[in-house]
UniProtKB/TrEMBL annotation:
Entry cofactors: Zn(2+)
UniProt enzyme class: hydrolase
GO molecular function: metallopeptidase activity
CDD domains in the record: LysM (cd00118), M48C_Oma1-like (cd07324)
InterPro entries: LysM, Mito/Outer_Membr_Metalloprot, Peptidase_M48
Gene3D superfamilies: Metalloproteases ('zincins'), catalytic domain
The protein's name: M48 family metalloprotease
Species whose genome carries this gene: Qipengyuania aurantiaca
This protein's UniProt keywords: Hydrolase, Metal-binding, Metalloprotease, Protease, Signal, Zinc
Record Pfam families: LysM (PF01476), Peptidase_M48 (PF01435)
Amino acid sequence: MPSFKSLAAASTAMASFALAGCAALPGGGNIPDSNTPITQSEAQIGAEAHPQLLAEFGGAMSGSQAQYVEQVGKTIAVQSGLGNARDSFTVSLVNSPVNNAFAIPGGYIYTTRQLVTLMNNEAELAGVLGHEVAHVALRHSQRRQAAAQRNSLLGAAGAILSSVLLGGNPLGQQLGQAALQGSQMLTLKFSRSQELEADTAGIQYLNSAGYDPRAMATVLASLAAQNALDARLQGRDDARLPEWASTHPDPASRVQTALSQAQGMSGVTNRDTFLSRIDGLTYGDDPKQGIVEGRQFIHPDLRLAFTAPQGFYMVNGTRAVTINGQSGKAQFTLAPYNGNLQTYVNSVFSGLSEQQQIRPSSIQTTTVNGLPAAYGTARVNNGNSQVDVTVFAYEFSNDRAYHFLALTPAGQSGTFNSLFSSVRRISAQEAANVVPRVLDVITVSSGDTVASLSRRMAYPSAQEERFRVLNGLQSGEGVRAGQKVKIVVRGS
């Protein structure tokens, strides 16, 4: 969340992306073969969406790590059979703390730095990028739009979001499309058959490029393990998150399929090369985007912080921070501010739905930790039930305000009272104390064990579990002297 874009600007960007997604299919609607070169129409679609998508995922990274990812991506893209594939594809490493990879028409391929930190060799990186190349080569976005008669990618994103927030009910769809779209929800959700098709093509690409095709299965296994660990640490009873494992569903069940398809194949993994090239990569939240530490969110550049209620967990997105729990959902973001908090609160409510007018019964003003604040709650019909929608806004300067948009069952808006009252400015010293976590690739010494290495992880809890997932180690599996492994340490 580098700068909390205004919702108006964000909506414009997303609308542009949506329009790009519904361009006419090449050849009057016929689906091209996988070895058909990227067309001028497809290239234009991607070129128009690319800047907005980069902004949604924290921007493109530069430097040697980004160049390495681009090199591997273009090498695997050549295997797709697309004419002039190396030059036709744009491969970007984006500064996002979620495990995600995605592609859009025109040969634009993306992976987040966080997903790269979860990988353990170059073959896994090539497998993930090859999977995304396959979506482009097989024209999956176009097929999904043609089959479902989608008007836009935004519609698909809203549908995914509504199921996350409110089980896919009508209010969820309205709020999802109007105001609660996280950056992770932009990309089109492919069908299960298309995901398996992309896995199969990706394995073929790996094999033809000389990589070990089993890497597709091992990276999927790491994703499944990370999802399960995240779910346990956040107190959830499922492993669903709006990340690569959600837009690319069910990695656990795809592991065995990928292993079966790769049976009898072999190749290089380039493990040590890969680890040396990603050494020092930022892990988790980038302080420039704000960080989540336990139940606290703190943004050193914007000089603010707040704390989620007990039992809730947070996900830091590019444009908003989401707060999730069994008894409610909320997001923290901003909208255009003209210096009047009551007008601000009303404008947020006004933008929630085109289908029904949502207005608070009243708007109250108060002060929270020295910050002028205003809030209101509206009760809204939500299918066969009702929910309370609360907007709680804070003035940080004459031209800058932020707000929570919260959804709770009717009569339970007090669920977030502690959250609303926790917003505060932070001091310059507190801001200076926020440092990133980074990957440190080390060589295992004689006498090192999983337990001893895990104690060096820069986390107060679940150190060994984090270490095992990070390094693709099964329960009970050890390390050996001379082996390179990843740990997460405090940067500077």
